[in-house]
Every structure is written in C-alpha cells, then in structure tokens.
From TrEMBL:
Keyword Iron-sulfur: yes
PANTHER family for this protein: DIHYDROOROTATE DEHYDROGENASE B (NAD(+)), ELECTRON TRANSFER SUBUNIT (PTHR43513), DIHYDROOROTATE DEHYDROGENASE B (NAD(+)), ELECTRON TRANSFER SUBUNIT-RELATED (PTHR43513:SF3)
Binding site for [2Fe-2S] cluster: C223, C228, C231, C243
Gene3D superfamilies recorded: Dihydroorotate dehydrogenase, electron transfer subunit (2.10.240.10), Nucleotide-binding domain of ferredoxin-NADP reductase (FNR) module (3.40.50.80), Translation factors (2.40.30.10)
Sorted UniProt keywords: 2Fe-2S, Electron transport, FAD, Flavoprotein, Iron, Iron-sulfur, Metal-binding, Transport
Cofactor: FAD; [2Fe-2S] cluster
Family annotation (InterPro entries): Cyt_c3_hydrogenase_gsu, Dihydroorotate_DH_ele_sf, Dihydroorotate_DH_Fe-S-bd, FAD-bd_FR_type, FNR_nucleotide-bd, PyrK_electron_transfer, Riboflavin_synthase-like_b-brl
Native source organism of the sequence: Spiroplasma eriocheiris
Family (UniProt): Belongs to the PyrK family.
Name of the protein this chain belongs to: Dihydroorotate dehydrogenase
Entry note: cofactor: Binds 1 FAD per subunit. Binds 1 [2Fe-2S] cluster per subunit.
UniProt binding sites for FAD: R53, P54, F55, S56, G77, T78
Biological process annotations from GO: pyrimidine nucleotide biosynthetic process
Length: 253
C-alpha cells in the first residue's frame, strides 16, 4: 500500500479477445515498478464517471514498464472503455493496491483454479510460479469456449479445461475438475479466483482436505483504500476489507 501512486498512464492497446471481453495494455512506469501478482488498480474509465473501477493485474512487465488488465463489458464504465478508449489516450490509474498472492515459503505443488472473468489475476501469478520453477497445474472453466480464449496469452501448458456447454474441454465445472485432480495428485497450495459460489466450494474442499488455500475475492469497491468500508466481507466470522486485507485472503494448514 505504501507504494501506491496516482499515475497518468498511456493506453497502448485495447484488444477485443472475445464477445464482451477485452485486454487493455498501458504504459505505466511507476505502477508497474511496484506491482505484484494479485494486487489491483483503480482506473478512471471516463471523465463523467465519478468512481474509478477496480481491475486486477493480468500482466506486469517491469522491463517494458507496462501493465495489462482483462475486463468484461458489464456496465457503463466498461462499456465506455470498450467503445471509446483510443490508443495513445491518457488515463488516470491508482495503484498498486491491496494484498496479493503469497508464494512463500516456497510451495512444491500448486493448483491454480480460475472461473470466467476470475481468470484475470491468474496469468501473472502463473508467470511468477514458472519463473520460480514451482510445479503447478492450471484448472480453468467458463460458460463456453469464448471465456477461455484469453488462455492464448498464458504460457503454454496442458491446462485442465472445462465449459458449462461442453464447447471446450470437459462438460463440467472446475470444482469437479479439482476434485478429480486431488484424487490423483499431492497438492500443498490451492489458489482460486472466480464466481463466489465456485470459490466457496473450493474453499470447503480445501478445508476438508486440509490444504492451504488463497482466494482472490472480487467485490464492488469505491475508495479502494479501506476508508469507506464498502467492500467489507464477513469471512469465517471476521469482517475483512477486501481492498486492503485482500483481495487475496489466505488460510494456512
């Protein structure tokens, strides 16, 4: 949190990946220098939108001084981003914010589980796991194959894929895929992001198996710094501010 800044960044690309799904790249020297996997930024989508929108880092390149966000068009802010943002445009961005993924002490067998737009923060995490030579398995799911198109931007690996309609991978949800994987493999850390019902089921599964887990929550936010308490969530009987205590919450076994 102490390294956060408000930076005027430059939009380098705003690529449509699939229906209503976009990948935006920004030149952001200050934010990229201090960003870590699992953290997020607040982005000013347009001048007439009072509140900035929170987006997790999809990619962080400290050498190129760039960051990327992966977003779905769901409301006025993201609609404006998809239709009106132009390459070269100057945009205000605040960050990096929040607490990211924890990959220490070093884990040996990690499972990364993403569902839908919750896949967004997991690409840069996988880059880190790969750089640290930590063994990992990715399990990803979406409503249909369009929701998995973004995996073309991930490092190449035999990921376990599933879709609700069976258009790509297994016709099942990622929780079933994770259960099947745990039956055959030793795992010491599960990391997940996606729909809340999916994450709650994975949380219950990890607790039953006594496997350390990290959940990246996606809550509506206003200030992003813990002042307004608008993103407070009760987790295991304790109120957590997702913007500062999270978005990544860990339980260690």
């Amino acid at each position: 949190m102490k390294h956060q800044v408000v930076e005027t960044v430059t939009l380098l690309n705003n690529e449509q990946i699939a229906d209503n799904l976009y990948l935006a790249t920004f030149k952001a020297p200050l934010i990229s220098a201090n960003a870590n996997p699992g953290q997020f930024v607040l982005v000013e989508t347009s001048a007439d939108q009072y509140l900035k929108r929170p987006f997790s880092f999809f990619d962080i390149d400290k050498v190129a001084q760039t960051v990327k966000i992966y977003y779905e068009v769901k409301g006025l802010g993201t609609f404006y981003m998809s239709k009106h943002w132009k390459v070269g445009q100057q945009i205000k961005m605040q960050g990096p914010l929040g607490s990211g993924f924890i990959i220490s002490p070093p884990y040996h067998n990690v499972v990364v589980v993403g569902g839908g737009i919750g896949i967004a923060p997991l690409k840069v995490l996988i880059d880190q796991l790969n750089a640290q030579q930590i063994n990992f398995q990715g399990i990803f799911g979406a409503r249909n194959k369009n929701g998995l198109t973004i995996l073309e931007h991930f490092i190449k690996k035999d990921y376990l894929l599933s879709t609700d309609d069976g258009s790509l991978g297994q016709p099942q949800n990622v929780v079933v895929s994770l259960q099947q994987y745990l039956q055959k493999n030793k795992v010491d850390l599960i990391i997940t992001c996606g729909p809340e019902i999916m994450m709650e089921k994975i949380k219950a599964l990890a607790e039953a198996e006594q496997i350390t887990y990290q959940i990246s929550y996606e809550n509506h936010m206003a200030c992003g710094t813990g002042a307004c308490m608008g993103c407070t969530k009760n987790i295991d009987g304790v109120n957590k501010k997702i913007c500062t205590d999270g978005p990544v919450i860990q339980r260690v076994f």
